[in-house]
Amino acid sequence: MDGHSARSWRTRALMLTALIASAASWPGTVLPADNDQANLEHRVKAAFLYKIAGYVEWPSSSFPRPDTPLTIGVVAADPLAAELSQVVTNRTANNRPITVKRLKGGEPLDGIHVLFVGRAANAQLPNLVSKTQQRSILVVTESDGALAYGSAINFILSEGRVRFEISLESARKSGVKLSSRLLAVAEQVYSGTP
């Protein structure tokens, strides 16, 4: 790696770490115990979803055209979908525009690259995961034990802050590669099923 590439990599790594640290430490991020907590939690998770998308590599077949947008599907988490739609406005990930699509249970996953499954859809998680692994879709969740059902990234609350854990096995089964820079800022990384 030449000096410019090393500096560029360090700069991007520092930017990711700073965004995640800032998202996790916004004023009031030690989450209050009322409605403000839920709103802040949605904002932090939306920021994480946006940044995480930039540190994932999909097979080239996932994007039929050079201008195909990266699409984040959201199931059972409308407030988070609304927040995420605001976060990604006029932004890109891996040089692609980002779109957000709210999905209902049973709706096809065509064109989805990241699937966020809210707590209310826990019962649907095994079925959704089986569909995503055939299509190279990164599954992100927010429920205790979700990694055991095939989620690749699961948001957790740790000491009142939003963090995330990763299952490398689930990411591999889905056909996506996670950047080592993303792994470096995870709360916990499991090589197999937790």
Could you give the count of β-strands? 10
The structural class is alpha/beta
Mean pLDDT: 85
Strand line-up of the largest beta sheet: 3-4-2-5-6-7-8-10
Query: Per CATH, what is the topology?
Result: Rossmann fold
Secondary-structure element order, N to C? HHEEHEEEHEEEHEHE
What is the radius of gyration? 16 Å
Number of helices: 6
As for the number of domains, it is 1
CATH homologous superfamily annotation = Response regulator
Strand count, sense and barrel status of the largest sheet are: 8 strands, mixed
Report the end-to-end length measured between terminal Cα atoms: 35 Å
Instruction: Extract low-pLDDT stretches.
Output: 3-32
Proportion of strand residues: 15-25%
Shape: globular
Give the arrangement of secondary structure elements.
Elements lengths: L2 H22 L10 H19 L2 E2 L12 E6 L2 H11 L3 E2 L2 E8 L10 E4 L7 H8 L5 E4 L11 E6 L2 E7 H6 L3 E2 L1 H5 L3 E3 L4
Parallel strand pairs: 2-4, 2-5, 5-6, 6-7, 8-10
Antiparallel strand pairs: 1-9, 3-4, 7-8
Helix pairs in contact: 1-2, 2-3
What report would you give on this structure?
The chain has 194 residues and is an alpha/beta fold. It has one domain: Rossmann fold (3-Layer(aba) Sandwich), CATH 3.40.50. The protein contains six helices and ten strands; from the N terminus they run H-H-E-E-H-E-E-E-H-E-E-E-H-E-H-E. The chain has helices at residues 3-24, 35-53, 78-88, 125-132, 168-173, 180-184; strands at residues 56-57, 70-75, 92-93, 96-103, 114-117, 138-141, 153-158, 161-167, 177-178, 188-190. Strands 3-4-2-5-6-7-8-10 form an eight-stranded mixed sheet, sandwiched between helices. Strand 5, helix 4 and strand 6 form a beta-alpha-beta unit. Helix 1 packs antiparallel against helix 2 (35-53) and helix 2 packs across helix 3 (78-88).
